[in-house]
Amino acid sequence: MLGICRGRRKFLAASLTVLFVPAITWIYLFAGSFEDGKPVSLSPLESQPHSPRYTASSQRDRESLEVRMREVEEENRVLRKQLSLAQSRSPSHHRGNHSKTYSMEEGTGDSESLRAGIVAGNSSECGQQPAVEKCETIHVAIVCAGYNASRDVVTLVKSVLFHRRNPLHFHLIADAIAKQILATLFQTWMVPAVRIDFYDADELKSEVSWIPNKHYSGIYGLMKLVLTKTLPSNLERVIVLDTDITFATDIAELWAVFHKFKGQQVLGLVENQSDWYLGNLWKNHRPWPALGRGYNTGVILLLLDKLRKMKWEQMWRLTAERELMSMLSTSLADQDIFNAVIKQNPFLVYQLPCFWNVQLSDHTRSEQCYRDVSDLKVIHWNSPKKLRVKNKHVEFFRNLYLTFLEYDGNLLRRELFGCPSEADVNSENLQKQLSELDEDDLCYEFRRERFTVHRTHLYFLHYEYEPASDNTDVTLVAQLSMDRLQMLEAICKHWEGPISLALYLSDAEAQQFLRYAQGSEVLMSRHNVGYHIVYKEGQFYPVNLLRNVAMKHISTPYMFLSDIDFLPMYGLYEYLRKSIIQLDLANSKKALIVPAFETLRYRLSFPKSKAELLSMLDMGTLFTFRYHVWTKGHAPTNFAKWRTATTPYRVEWEADFEPYVVVRKDCPEYDRRFVGFGWNKVAHIMELDAQEYEFTVLPNAYMIHMPHAPSFDITKFRSNKQYRICLKTLKEEFQQDMSRHYGFAALKYLTAENNS
């Protein structure tokens, strides 16, 4: 590196010589051609030997200057030739397909500086470095396990995507939970020039389970030690990040630091900014061995190829075994072992400037890492307190974090122009489907919504449920938006069984929901509720997509297809399980109908029995659902018969029938063409009938619709004529599709529609 820098300095000096010497010469000549403030011509043609001011001395001076000028020009010619030769011989410093970027500040690889913990060597050694190639892929590895870490990863990825200008390849070491969540998220996110690979963290447990660890990250906090074995053997280098990291700059700047590694340096780390490894935090505090203040492993640059050649696996294992004989366990997971290895082998580490890992745990020296906002590169929330950590500028850092937390992820679907990307089958199919639509069609937006891919985050909160072993378990399925959030607690009080909910929210609303749920004792006490966030996109409420998402992610053999503004009767969960056995739902295609009622009162004394409900019907406190505005929707339930029924009874399908039913989990999905208000449930019940489901009304079950303000979509339906025209068109197309799919038997749906 030193030789390269000296060569550059010589090159710069020579260049300055070429530029300035001729300029100075001409200034000198020009100044010398004036006498008494008047110009004197140097041209022989213009000289006037007969002038009294023209003397032999002036002639000699002029000739002398002309000779000197020719000498300088000859020297410049020789210098240019030498510079040309030097440039043609200068070596290229690219390492394979990994190139470099500029960095305003530089860390130090000097071992003496490392021992002293000095970060003062951050100034650039040789000025601006070569730029990262435009389309070079940057590799990032993250260990992620569980529901909370999966949410944290999204915020980290958002901050990286916001600043990035290069293709990215994320290597996610994930458990089964995180893989399910993040695989669906990235598949539906469809960010160009981003590749995701998963590695089974559970398979790696045996590699590190022998190490006792007190850190809150558990066994997954040790898995960065085995990345040389886990990641592909042809991967030469990777940036390793904790999930509680936020980027404030382009990650390519960090990727570029790899080119500054010298000799046997294979680890890029920032010095630990707390006093942990100094051993003076409390009496008898005994940390693992470390070099000076030690290093923080929230951000690591790994030269994988060199680490493998050095037999990194043996190196860290031997060190860990030796230290555990006296330390008994790790306190800071992998960080303790990394530091113990570095203590014995200080030549392995390249110290990064501390702004690449500004550590916001309590009592750190993080404030010494920046003087201005522009100095910040990476923020690390490495305290169990996270956003509640003590720091003089914590409000600024918190706002930066919240910016990405609530940032609309759809805006990060930016193309990297000029960079070829791998063919994405989902994206290509979407473009093909959209290209087949007529943009001049007045119902184009309705048709487009059917193909829109909505970013989806499954299991936004912790979920833990094991279905009953008797194979009768049933999940309540519903969907909602932010304006129905207040119904959640009431539903949880009425239904003790598992629930699957799809929530249609923006990124900011998702965080509001998270705060609401975490502040609710009722919701936090329930671990059998799956909350699946479908992020907002487009102008319509994708009601049937939401239902399909909630249906798809149930773990029970049966589901109760409900709506969020209905409260089931107390004890309905157990009643349905008994009915499933009684009616042999496992071996028959039945749809069990739960009769629907409604109240116009916001404060209702909920009926605790069928007899009490019938009394309230007679008193006018309750009504059959939508009897006054949409009688056809539930009339086939035959409420008159239900009043006296004591056993289940069968009813026939009729036009516009849309009851709430219990079915097996293998029932058909809802048709996505129906969005917003109108025909979304009607079409589904019609398809159940076409597939020969038998509709059976349960005599002792009921649900009650609670009043609320009209939704935005029903308002559009009522006020917008074109909305109603498009809905009618979609209905006709659906019926035609039914006829093609189910043949002659489906003709009754066309007839029924014409007669209704």
Automatic annotation (TrEMBL):
Its main location: Golgi. Keywords: Glycoprotein, Glycosyltransferase, Golgi apparatus, Membrane, Multifunctional enzyme, Signal-anchor, Transferase, Transmembrane, Transmembrane helix. Residues 59-69 have a biased composition (Basic and acidic residues). Pathway: Protein modification; protein glycosylation. Gene3D superfamilies: Spore Coat Polysaccharide Biosynthesis Protein SpsA, Chain A (3.90.550.10). It is a single-pass type II membrane protein. Residues 42-69, 81-109 are annotated as: Disordered. CDD domains: GT8_LARGE_C. This is LARG1 glucuronyltransferase. The gene is Large1. InterPro entries: Glyco_trans_8 (IPR002495), Nucleotide-diphossugar_trans (IPR029044), Xyl/GlcA_transferase (IPR051292). It holds the Pfam family Glyco_transf_8. The chain crosses the membrane at residues 12-31. The keyword Metal-binding does not apply. It catalyses: 3-O-{beta-D-GlcA-(1->[3)-alpha-D-Xyl-(1->3)-beta-D-GlcA-(1->](n)-4)-beta-D-Xyl-(1->4)-Rib-ol-P-Rib-ol-P-3-beta-D-GalNAc-(1->3)-beta-D-GlcNAc-(1->4)-O-6-P-alpha-D-Man}-L-Thr-[protein] + UDP-alpha-D-xylose = 3-O-{(1->[3)-alpha-D-Xyl-(1->3)-beta-D-GlcA-(1->](n+1)-4)-beta-D-Xyl-(1->4)-Rib-ol-P-Rib-ol-P-3-beta-D-GalNAc-(1->3)-beta-D-GlcNAc-(1->4)-O-6-P-alpha-D-Man}-L-Thr-[protein] + UDP + H(+); 3-O-[beta-D-GlcA-(1->3)-beta-D-Xyl-(1->4)-Rib-ol-P-Rib-ol-P-3-beta-D-GalNAc-(1->3)-beta-D-GlcNAc-(1->4)-(O-6-P-alpha-D-Man)]-Thr-[protein] + UDP-alpha-D-xylose = 3-O-[alpha-D-Xyl-(1->3)-beta-D-GlcA-(1->4)-beta-D-Xyl-(1->4)-Rib-ol-P-Rib-ol-P-3-beta-D-GalNAc-(1->3)-beta-D-GlcNAc-(1->4)-(O-6-P-alpha-D-Man)]-Thr-[protein] + UDP + H(+); 3-O-{(1->[3)-alpha-D-Xyl-(1->3)-beta-D-GlcA-(1->](n)-4)-beta-D-Xyl-(1->4)-Rib-ol-P-Rib-ol-P-3-beta-D-GalNAc-(1->3)-beta-D-GlcNAc-(1->4)-O-6-P-alpha-D-Man}-L-Thr-[protein] + UDP-alpha-D-glucuronate = 3-O-{beta-D-GlcA-(1->[3)-alpha-D-Xyl-(1->3)-beta-D-GlcA-(1->](n)-4)-beta-D-Xyl-(1->4)-Rib-ol-P-Rib-ol-P-3-beta-D-GalNAc-(1->3)-beta-D-GlcNAc-(1->4)-O-6-P-alpha-D-Man}-L-Thr-[protein] + UDP + H(+). One of its GO terms (cellular component) is Golgi membrane. It comes from the Eukaryota. GO terms for molecular function: glucuronosyltransferase activity; xylosyltransferase activity. One of its GO terms (biological process) is protein O-linked glycosylation via mannose. In the N-terminal section; belongs to the glycosyltransferase 8 family.
